[in-house]
Structure prediction request, 346 residues.
Amino acid sequence: MESKCMAAFSADGIIKHHTIQRRDPKSDDVVIKIEFCGVCHSDIHTVKSEWGPTMYPCVPGHEIVGHVVAVGKKVKRFKVGEAVGVGCMVDSCGKCASCKNHEEQFCERKTVFTYNSTELDYKTQTYGGYASSLVVKDKFVLKIKKNLPLEKVAPLLCAGITTYSPLKRFKVSKGKKVGVVGLGGLGHMAVKIAKAMGAEVTVFSTSSGKESDAKRLGAKHFLMTKDPQAFLTAAGKLDLIISTVSVQHDMTPYLSTLKKGGTLVLVGVAPEPNHVHAFGVIGGRKSLTGSLIGGLKETQEMLDFCAKKKVFSDIELIQPSQINEAYSRTIKGDVKYRFVVDLKSI
Ligand code: NAP
Ligand code: ZN
Ligand code: ZN
Prediction:
């Protein structure tokens, strides 16, 4: 079936109107009419080939929400008319230890990502959610509770799960002190989710204008990282840091704000390697680790947690024709706090 979409055709990253073919639905497929799709910085890294060569045309978008318009005959979990979401993955082997442990993002054979990836046949290119429709295996479709603001739910499918997963893994609960580096799409979700889990949140930012928003979103402290004094103020205070920075930077000063045994989790993926001095981790025996989205079971758990706690994304809704401008503004850190594309009439 034909799907109208927005695609990049080269590493200049310029997005234009395009049309692609989606596969004919199989017995275990769900056909979704897409309504909204969030704009993740990963979309920007990918269309510009910043992480290596991208397959063009590239239809980005992995924060997808919409309604079911058809289901294959073996599909029991979904009915026509239900609100659903799709995140960063659309398939995996289903048989390896990671898949059996509900960590499809680490499939030992192949995780099929929503765009700029190939299906399990290693040939058929995948196309993401800046489009009118999507055909997805039912296992990779998430349920969205009734009567939620779908445009504000969309960013949970990547920004939400990417921050929820390490916050949960490191057992954030009442009284824990959590740092969030970068107040963008992922960062603002990290603040909201950590706060909803009971943490005391400190935001590290390069943008002085974001202080009042950080506090409104749930942060107790706001530190400007251009001021070296900021790191002294917070020295040795935090249990956990989630770093969402999308550009190369020195992680050592952030490590100094952790308590003994504390952990810095990198989720931001700068195209160039970040720096870290050994002194950052040896004193206080600190850990530096990373985290990649989250499995389907955990993504559903996160969606249900956010619905219960009324945690949604702060968004700027745009039309498809505004995507290129939205990319430029995201690169400048000028978004409050996630662009979401309205695809209802693409
Ligand atoms: P975003 O909305 O652009 O936010 C990134 C934030 O980083 C900016 O808002 C800015 O916050 C901060 N920043 C920008 N330049 C900086 C600099 N020079 N030094 C320090 N901080 C700077 O991007 P996003 O969509 O949240 O994505 C963030 C990163 O996570 C991207 O690299 C993306 O590819 C990656 N990502 C990873 C996963 C995963 O599974 N690990 C999933 C999704 C995305 P301030 O203005 O507050 O400084
Ligand atoms: Zn993303
Ligand atoms: Zn697998």
Q: What stands out?
A: Residues 316 and 339 are 5 Å apart (CA to CA). The chain has two domains: 2-158+313-342, 159-290. The radius of gyration is 20 Å.
